[in-house]
Design a protein that fits this description.
With 524 residues, the protein is an alpha+beta fold. Among the domains are: 161 residues, Serine Threonine Protein Phosphatase 5, Tetratricopeptide repeat (Alpha Horseshoe), CATH 1.25.40; 76 residues, Alpha-Beta Plaits, CATH 3.30.70.330; 88 residues, Alpha-Beta Plaits (2-Layer Sandwich). It is 52% helix and 13% strand. It has 20 helices and eleven strands. A five-stranded antiparallel beta sheet has the order 2-3-1-5-4. About 14% of the residues have low confidence. GO terms for molecular function: RNA binding. It comes from Medioppia subpectinata.
Length: 524
Amino acid sequence: DPNEYLQIWLTYLDCLRRKTNWKDEKEVKSLRNTFEKAVEHLSNIESADPNCSVLQYWAKIEAKYCSNVEKARELWNQLMTTRSDIASQAQNWLSFSRLERLFGDDKHYRKVLLRGLTTSSDWPESIGQILLEFEREEGVSIDSFDEVMHKYETVMKKVSEKRIKSAEREAEEKKRQKTNKKYEKYEQKKAAKRTAEQSDADTTQKTSTLDVDSDGFKVPQTSTSVSPMKKSRVETSSEKDCKQTKPREERDRNVNTREETPRDEPKHGVSYRGDGSKDLQTVFISNLNFNTNEDQLKEALGKFGQIDDLRLVRNYKGLSKGYAYVEYASIESVREALKHDRMPLEGRPVFITEMGKRSKFSFSTSIEKHKIFVKNISPEVTVETLNQVFSKYGSLKDVRLVTYRNGHSKGCAYIEYNDESSALLAVKEADGLLVADKNIIVAISNPNNRSNTRDDRDLSTQNFNGNPNESRYSKTRINAPMIPMAIRRQRQTQNGNNESPAANSSGSSALSNTDFRNMLLGNK
């Protein structure tokens, strides 16, 4: 490995540097000669020292221990002029500038940064920002700052144009590669089709010698040449006759042989019909990750007790449907598993219910003074974070982060303490506390209070008719029946309802249309 040569030289140079007496000129000269040998040796080995770290180390020793800044500048200038790949990297110019900043002067420091700004091509922004800060803090005039700003903008304009062109070339190259892949696939399909057609043609051209009967006529062939693609589908009449003449015992024996032969097919879901005797020992697992397999389920659920059978439901393709049935050896194991309903598995809360029973809400809906409700929680907050935040207010019994079916947080949680005083202290101290860039809201758990508030909001959305079943956005129905007023008044009079006071006092009945017609015409 070429890198091992570099490590050996660096270790040896470190040892010499520690033993060198900097006041003794002979020892200093010996160390310089060793650095020259190391640089020469590593330059003859490919990829041994790609970043010239030995030369940079030498320059730092000259500036720091020998107080020879001119020699250090000479080494760096030699490196930047002979190696264009190193000169194009901004980090090397920054290393050179740091050396000037520590052991040189402001003049050479500014000069190095200006050279790096115009020479580096990968990330000149880093050099430009440092140069502008230096001119702003230690520049003698505004003209020098304007000059540096102008150079910086000019360089960045050129760099931006190069980056845009490079991005366009990369996009064109990706597009060309994609087109070439499509063309290669098309050519492969075309070649496969030609090969199949050629094979069919060769099979058709092959003819066997025809038999001749006693009269000199050629006997036709009993079977036709069939392409390999169709041979498996075609069945000649002679084969059918042979099948029909086989004894029944031989056919049955062949059927049994086929049934016993194993097939390498994908594992599909297996139909299961239980007798109901093991339902009490079986739990239903739902909301599983579709990538979860039987081994992962056994590992997660086996800690509750011995598992006699585990049936992961699959579709016709052999893929998981997201639910399973787990049969335990004892009912105690089932009870223990039910206690861990909504346990996390593969990033999702797993629902564990009894066999044949619907999932019920397993938490209290009344006020619980030893439990607090926390909302406005950041999605990045985990159960461990909540445990760490609220454990300082008292002994925790349970921490439940409310999540969606996919395992993502809903932004709220329930924290249960062993006593009411701890819960009250948590409400007093933690309400409005900043947790992960959000101020949480803490209150005593009271689901009924929230449901009543929701009912009040529902009542406020009733329409003006007062019907709670109609939405306020639904079209208002006209309450008047489509019956003429005269007929309705006549019906009301007959039923004795809604009679006018004048009619009751006079005892006369209401006038009909005929009475009004006679009055207008003057008839009596």
